Amino acid sequence: MDNHAQILPGTLDLLILKAVSLGPLHGYGVLLRIGQISKGALEIEQGALYPALFRLVSKGFLKATWGTSDNNQRAKFYELTAAGRKRLREEIADWERLVAAIGTVLGTRAEEI
Amino acid sequence: MRILSRLRTFWNFLFRRSQVESDMEEEFLSHLRSRARDLERKGLSRDEAERQARVEFGGYQRYKEECREALGTQLFGELIADLRYGLRQLRRNPGFTIVAVLTLALGIGANTAIFAIIDGMILHPFPVAKPGQLVRIGMETPQGSEDRISYPDYKDLRHQASDFAGFLLWDREAAFLNSMDESSQILIDVVSPDYFTTLGVAAFRGRTFQPQLDSGSPRERTVVISYRLWKTRLGADPSIVGKTIKMTGKPTLVLGITPPGFQGMTRPVPTDAWVLASQRQPGVLHERGDLFFEAMGRLKEGITVAQARLNWIRSGFGWPRLIRQPTKQRPLG
What we know:
The structure holds two protein chains of two kinds. By secondary structure, chain A is of the alpha+beta class. In chain A, 50% of the residues lie in helices and 14% in strands. A three-stranded antiparallel β-sheet of chain A has the order 1-3-2. Helix content of chain B is 38%, strand content 20%. Chain B contains nine helices and twelve strands. Chain B is globular and about 50 Å long.
């Protein structure tokens, strides 16, 4: 049975912000971190990451700087800006409210989800 | 001034795509390489790993296009925000208005550069002699790191003979072939005289540039054309070497043709022709502030990047920096 959830548009941004909040990462690193924190449940087409990263930079939530990766290659690193951190907090709060609301609708207690 | 710097970035984004494109390409390729490496660790063969990495990546060109759009939006938005801020400042300082307006007017010019269509992700090693010995050279300035240097900087570098067998410069430009209309726009690299000899690229027909530094005195305009240009736009004319063609309205002598497969050092957009830097406005050869050129050096046999860096610092020649080596690339997929 396929246990991979479909990523809704907008949730990819949230996952990226969350992944990067734990420390600056390059593109591939973001992918790996998303895999780690979702325990492999959320799969995306890998290239789709980059337009999302670029858009988050363009909105001012991420900052990109060129640096050196662990195997001495030149790589572009992404990190959260202050605006990004704020956005992440807001999105998490929204998400939790949504989960609680759906839980109520489905007649299940929020803690059981 | 922040506006000028933003304008330059936006100008570069619009008309000198090579840097933006190669950055994006480098980022994507680095991802694919990392993924392929991880897949190999899981037991796949190299070929299978590379193929799988590409499949997992998905629509390479489509994602690049989306990234370009996002970047354009970002740069444009930042530029507008800065222009608004600048206008507010100008209203308070009317004396500066004229200068600022002139600067902006000069910045937003005409002459669209053409972009070669990036077709396919087929990677080959750079078809030059011993690519592993080549390093990109940049600069540290008080304003930050730069990937480009000026012509006088390059001349200074040539005095640093101890670890390096040679240096080369290039800068991308648009030019017109034979006529001045849109359809005959080509991409050329304006290069230092020792570009071909340092890269170790010999002419397929005719010859390439003599490696002696120009004195900057006026001389006949010459061009080295690419094999691809010769075949596609010049009808593979067997007697093209020694003929005069028109480039951007000026009669230019064809010195030679590069070997098939050599497309310049700006990946993945190929170069159509090469001209000497001395054929640009003479000022460019002397302006230390004009960081126009991309630069590379060839390390001497047996010298490593680390050694060269160390010697550079020791010699007090601190400001140019070795930024990275071009990737040794293998065919993917």
